[in-house]
Amino acid sequence: MTIPKYFHREKQKDNKPTKKLVKLNKLREFFEKKGYNLQFNILFEEHYDPATYRALKELLPAADIYIPESIRWRKIDLIVMNGISRGKFEKNDLEKILDLFKKEPLAKLLSSNAVSALLIKVKATPEDIIDILIESYFQEPEILDDLVLSKISFLELFVNKVKGKQVIEFLNLKEEISKILKIGKELNEKDIENISEFFGYLEYGLQSFKIIKGTKKPIVIVDLPLDHPLEKKISEVLEASPLHSLNPDNYPPMPDENFDQLLENIINSIEKYSELMQERENYMLEQLPKTIDNLLNEHPELQQKALSKEGIKILLNLGAVHTRIFHKLEETGIPTKRKFTKMPFVYSLYPEILRKYVFVYSKLNESEKSKYREKIQELAAKSLAEAYFTYEFYRLSSLSYITNLSSYLRTIISQLTLNDVRHIFEELKKIREGKITALDIWSKYININHPI
Which helix (H) or strand (E) holds 95? Predict the structure, then answer.
């Protein structure tokens, strides 16, 4: 591998590489020292977009290793994904999963929806459920939100119970999980749906599983695991963000606060999140060498291929906001290609502001930052409007037919000024009071026919 010319230009006065470049250089040197011949192919995607699944289906056959983006991943996820990739689960997969159930709280292994389904399926007694809740509650308090406590007469017992049992002691999980995983038998599409439902994967995970099924591609994850301190910081910043609080259940989805203060809060949360996002990306880059090395040690035939002239191809699947990882890998001199699920790729405003912080704002001096902040403020205001119209669209069933929602939204939002957004924000209060409708706001500010 040859070091790109621009690597040599970024040196300090004493001719020593900067700390940042030294780290990247070590990444390249690690693979060179091992003698591995690698090529990265990065698929930048937009979640839940059909184009994402088409692109994954197109690129996966040529890859030797698949690395999906998977923040908050659980140990059980790797077992499940690799079993699906092989097309069948073996006895040792079941043993690994059962071992996890013995050691980990239920909330770290299953989503709250999956817990609900499991309790119903195995006909657990109220006492059993109490024990599960106590064990899980401290790991994932939200788990209670998806259980209809009012219909189960054990709330008082739950409050008074002191110590929970291990889940494995009273639920016949071995039989249940064996049935779900179909140990030793070839998986079909219905099996994938059952597995996805049982372990609580979202629609995005289900569609990805259908593509990787039977491809026999080894899968590893370099993203932040569920219990990583940085993941918790990211979750806290996102949950505190004003944009995060906009949800369809609180229609119209706008917080009751001063518009200018709201904008400032949005900018501050985006700035914090952009810093944490870069930390997350750095973590992924740091995990790559040892994760790939460990995988190759477990697969001797793949290791031999990596040591040959042919080398191996690694498909890295990331959200489109993470293009910085492509640039960092490219800087190392390791052959790296990228593909977007569609071109031109249109970012929604929130990730676009994040990218401006990463690639532009962070590199400005204080005077330049002050001027640039005005531009950020306008984009933040438009992101607020974008959030409103996005939820308005999802509220309308007819909008499910808009296949390129980001582009459609940008066409709409580009018409608005900062004052327009300010007025829209004020008028949302009238919607709450029943004086006007969302269609009234649309016809007043948007010069495009409403989709209904």
Answer: helix 91-103
Q: How far apart are CA 55 and CA 175, in angstroms?
A: 37
Residue bearing tokens 């250089």: 25
Q: How many helices (H) and strands (E) does the chain have?
A: 22, 4
* Distance separating alpha carbons of residues 135 and 225, to the nearest angstrom: 20
The angle subtended at Cα 69 by Cα 299 and Cα 20, nearest 5°, is 90
Structure tokens at 341: 């699920």
Span 395-451, pLDDT tens digits: 654 444 445 666 777 777 878 888 888 888 888 777 767 777 666 777 777 766 655
Q: How large is the C-alpha radius of gyration of the chain?
A: 25
Average pLDDT score over residue span 36-59? 89
353, 55 Cβ separation under 8 angstroms? no
Residue 11's SS3 state is strand
Q: How confident is the model at residue 210 (pLDDT cuts 50, 70, 90)?
A: very high
Domain boundaries, the chain: 76-212
- Residue 45, strand partner residues: 319
